[in-house]
Each structure stands twice: as structure tokens, then as C-alpha cells.
Design brief:
With 326 residues, the chain is an all-alpha fold.
Length: 326
């Protein structure tokens, strides 16, 4: 789930943490355009691993957006580990990718509960007062409050676990050793664009599959998978940007647009499911469930609009002018 809060490549993070490119410049480790594929990928991974470790204190302190930023760091790391097997062999990255997925899921549950609560409250603000029958806002708050507390406790437990410590240690070992893939020593500009192209093609296949899937839960699931692929292509392009330059950054922004629209669509799908659960709870408690049915219907129409919009955004983002460098 997203709150549509991810930043573009040139904007500062909302919590003051520099973006990847800015961090590389600050640290003096930004790869040269002529660098090898291994140098470029490892520099990106070191930046994200450092961000992940630095964000731990902010998450523990409950700072706004810190869970989201930590989740983004895990996703960037995992996407790059999965995208550049010719640079970092799967034998070296597979276990770390799985552990990042574990951490990302835990962070995701906390982030999703936070975003969904805010989303439903915001949507209820658009409903005329006379159509809000009963203590709707209070029920939404009461529904999510224990879930949010439990998911945040799970995050803190994970961050204090030996498994998390081992994950950080594994990232440190990987990123401070030479890349061992068969193309790690080749020029980055000759290797990385092809990996981005493969990630893009997966997104293209999944968008096509979603388009040909009948409306309903199966289509919603297909669009969610397409979003994951667009996100992976975006992060792969980010990693390749030191070698590929402006075209890679432009392509990454286009994939971000796709990711954002599909993320909003997924949020609406999940919000619709929660509206149904809230309505059932209200009915069983002897309350009027009308407002939750109205909210469900509004989210259904919103998801349909976002579905149609996603197809338009994809057609623009996948134009040849954004892919000529691959």
C-alpha cells in the first residue's frame, strides 16, 4: 500500500534524509560515468544499506514517515539485488533478498495500517454530514487503533531481533566486497541498461495481462503485480543512473508515475474491503451500516477510475523516447 508519498529523484526526503544520488555526492562515493557495473551497483547498495541502518533510530523514536522510508530502503535494496544478477550472482544475494522481504513485510503491515486509517478518515471527510449515520469516524479509529499498535510492536520486535542484526551484517559484508558476477567488471553503461530493460519488459507483460483480465478481484491482483514490476524497473533505473545519466532518471520518474497510480488503485481496493468489514461490525453491534456501504461504493468507483487512468499513464511512460537508452 502507498500513501502516494514517495519522492522524485531530485526531491529531499520528507524526514530530511537525502535521496540516494544526494547521499552519494555527500559521501564522495558517486561512481564515475566510466565506472564498472560492479562499482555502480555496489555504490547504490551501500547508500541504501546505510539509509536502512540510519532509519532504525527514527523508527524507534516514532518519527513521522520513518517506517515508510525504511520500507522504501528495503524495497530498493531487494529490487537491485534481484535485477542485476550478472553483477551480483543470486548465490550471493538470494538469502539477503529473502531477509529484506521479511523485514519489508513487517514494515509494510505497520505502514499499511497507518495509511489506511488516514485514507478512510480523509474519504469520510468528503461524505455529506447527513450521510454519516452513527459514530462512523469513531468506529474507524477503534477498528485500526489496536492493529496499528500491534503492527508497530512487531516492527520494534523485529528491529531488536538477531535476525535483523544478521541482515545488517550480511548487507555490510556484501557491499564492502567486490561484486563477483560475470559482468561485474564490464563498463556499467554496457551492462546495466540491459538489466533495466528486462525489468521493464516484466512490467510490460504484467500490464498487458492485467488489461486482458476481466474486472474483479483477479484484475485487481494483476494490477498489483504490475505495480511491483514497475517499482522494480524504477529502482533498477535509479541504480543505473550514474552510468546512464539523465535518460535513466527520466525513465525512473515515468515508472514512478505508474507505480503511484497503481498504488492508489491498490489502496482503494483494500479500503473497499475494510469498509465491508466495518459495515459488518457495525451491523453486528446493532448500528446502522449505511455509511460503510456508501464508502464501499465510492471506493469501487474510485478504483475503476484509477484502473482506466493507469492504462493511460502506462502508455505514456512506456513510450520509446523514455527507453532508447536501454
Amino acid at each position: 500500500m502507498t500513501a502516494n508519498t514517495t519522492q522524485t529523484l531530485t526531491q529531499p526526503a520528507t524526514n530530511g534524509t537525502p535521496r540516494p544520488e544526494q547521499q552519494n555526492v555527500i559521501a564522495g562515493t558517486r561512481p564515475r560515468p566510466s565506472a564498472s557495473a560492479g562499482e555502480v551497483v555496489m555504490a547504490y547498495l551501500r547508500t541504501q544499506a546505510a539509509a536502512l541502518a540510519a532509519l532504525e533510530a527514527q523508527v524507534r523514536a516514532g518519527e513521522p514517515d520513518s517506517v515508510h522510508q525504511m520500507r522504501v530502503a528495503t524495497r530498493r535494496l531487494r529490487a537491485v539485488l534481484r535485477s542485476f544478477h550478472q553483477v551480483i550472482p543470486a548465490a550471493d544475494s538470494g538469502h539477503l533478498a529473502a531477509e529484506l522481504q521479511w523485514l519489508g513485510h513487517i514494515l509494510g503491515r505497520a505502514r499499511d495500517d497507518e495509511v489506511l486509517t488516514a485514507h478512510l478518515h480523509d474519504r469520510l471527510q468528503t461524505v455529506p454530514t447527513e450521510l454519516l449515520i452513527g459514530s462512523v469516524q469513531a468506529r474507524v479509529q477503534g477498528h485500526f487503533a489496536p492493529r496499528r499498535a500491534a503492527s508497530l510492536a512487531e516492527v520494534l520486535e523485529a528491529l531488536g531481533s538477531p535476525r535483523y542484526t544478521a541482515l545488517l551484517a550480511g548487507l555490510d559484508r556484501l557491499t564492502h566486497a567486490p561484486a563477483r558476477g560475470p559482468k561485474a567488471g564490464a563498463p556499467a553503461r554496457d551492462v546495466l541498461p540491459a538489466a533495466v530493460r528486462r525489468a521493464y519488459r516484466q512490467a510490460k507483460r504484467r500490464m498487458r495481462a492485467a488489461r486482458h483480465t476481466p474486472a474483479g478481484p483477479a484484475r485487481d491482483a494483476a494490477l498489483h503485480q504490475a505495480r511491483k514490476s514497475a517499482r522494480r524497473a524504477r529502482y533498477a533505473a535509479e541504480a543505473a543512473a550514474p552510468a546512464a545519466g539523465h535518460p535513466a532518471r527520466t525513465f525512473a520518474r515515468q515508472m514512478k508515475h505508474v507505480q503511484s497510480v497503481l498504488g492508489d488503485h491498490h489502496d482503494s481496493v483494500v479500503a473497499r474491503q475494510e469498509a465491508r468489514e466495518l459495515g459488518i461490525g457495525a451491523y453486528l453491534a446493532g448500528e446502522n451500516a449505511f455509511s460503510y456501504g456508501l464508502l464501499h461504493e465510492r471506493e469501487l468507483h474510485r478504483a475503476q477510475r484509477l484502473d482506466a487512468h493507469a492504462q493511460l499513464v502506462w502508455r505514456r511512460a512506456s513510450h520509446r523516447r523514455y527507453r532508447h537508452w536501454m
